[in-house]
Amino acid sequence: TQSTWGFLLLVRATNTSLFSSHVDTLLTQTMTSVLTQREEDIQKMLACQVHLGTKNLDNAMERYVWKRRNDGIHIINIGKTYEKLMLAARAIVAIENPADVVVVSARPYGQRAVLKFAQYTGAHAIASRWTPGTLTNQITQKFMEPRLLILTDPRTDHQAIKESSYGNIATIAFCDTDSPLAHVDIAIPSNNKGKHSIALLYYLLAREVLYLRGTLPRGQPWDVMVDLFFWRDPEELERQEAGAEEAYAPREITQGEGEWAGEAQGEWTGQAAEGWDASQAAEGGNWDSAAPAASSWD
Questions:
Q1: C-beta atoms surrounding 86 within 10 Å
Q2: pLDDT tens track of the chain, all 298 residues?
Q3: Separation CA 8–CA 131 (nearest Å)
Q4: How many C-alpha atoms does 266 have within 13 Å on its Cβ side?
Q5: Residue 136 has what pLDDT?
Q6: Beta bridge partners of 148
Q7: Is 133 exposed, middle or buried (0-12, 13-18, 19+ CB in 10 A)?
Q8: By the 8 A CB rule, do 157 and 105 touch?
């Protein structure tokens, strides 16, 4: 953490022979692990296209844009995205009660990520349409008074931002290049329209919150995969389940089906016919000769 680095640098500055070599080793290991994790996270963000914006650009988001491609797509400075994620995590950790943090996503791609974020951090998730009056109307059953609000898209979740401004509630939002920044306290520049991008952002934010709370050691990797935060299409899942059931369902074999069915049937028929002819020839009789023996039963 930052306090540990400060202590190590202070001890290193005193240049004491007793702790000099040991402090250098600890400082090098700490900085290497943090830098390595930062590089891995940035590579994941590039793979999930977190840096891709839209063709439109808001004036307030111009400071977070690195350049513009030939096709008109604005490229977001991913270094500022990572810095804002760390800042947002510190703001979340500053809330003593995790239940006072509300995570909202009216966009379908972010609903699963919101639920997973709330599961691991203890926040309250609203993964559906925002009910008007949730933060202002005390008569409603869903009325709440959170201290911090996390939004997936300021444009889609505009009603939640408007109500949070009435109650003076701090707001964190994932903002694309065309997103309005009105009443947004911490804007995280990112691609808030891709399902992989949204899932990775909530994954990194949840992991950093656990690191800062001390629930998860900084050097230990998180055993939760980012795939759990990805949105899944219910219709596609139903098709996959139906295909799996058809593949593993027992199939009835009809008579004469298969490559060897005809050969086997002919082979058994031929053997049976030969067997009956041989026994009949060995006995030297026929079926008619055995018929009078049945009269002895009367």
A1: 14
A2: 444 445 444 444 445 444 445 545 544 555 455 567 788 888 888 988 889 999 998 898 999 999 999 999 999 999 999 999 999 999 999 999 999 999 999 888 888 899 999 999 999 999 888 989 999 999 988 899 999 999 999 999 999 999 999 989 999 999 999 999 999 999 999 999 888 999 999 999 999 999 999 888 887 888 888 878 876 766 666 676 777 666 665 655 555 555 555 555 555 555 555 555 555 554 555 555 555 554 455 4
A3: 50
A4: 5
A5: 92
A6: 101, 170
A7: middle
A8: yes
CA distances from 166 to 106, 158, 163, 250 (A): 20, 13, 5, 62
CA distances from 199 to 48, 68, 75, 185 (A): 9, 25, 19, 22
With 0-12 / 13-18 / 19 or more C-beta atoms within 10 angstroms meaning exposed / middle / buried, residue 124 is middle
Q: Which two tokens stand for residue 14?
A: 């005193």
Q: Which two tokens stand for residue 160?
A: 């939640």
Q: Which tokens is 155 given?
A: 């444009």
Is there a contact between 223 and 207 (Cβ–Cβ < 8 Å)? no
β pairing state of 74-76 and 65-68: antiparallel
Q: Which tokens go with 161?
A: 């931002």
User: Strand, helix or coil at 75?
Assistant: strand
- Closest Cα to residue 103, out of 158, 172, 143, 151? 151
- The H-assigned helical ranges of the chain are 2-14, 20-47, 78-93, 111-121, 158-166, 195-213, 234-248, 261-283
**pLDDT (0 to 100) of residue 255:** 53
| CA–CA distance, 86 with 186 (Å, rounded to integer) | 11
State both tokens at 24. 């250098």
Hey, what are 176's tokens?
A: 């694309």
Q: What token pair was written down for 53? A: 């914006």
Report helix, strand or coil for 274: helix
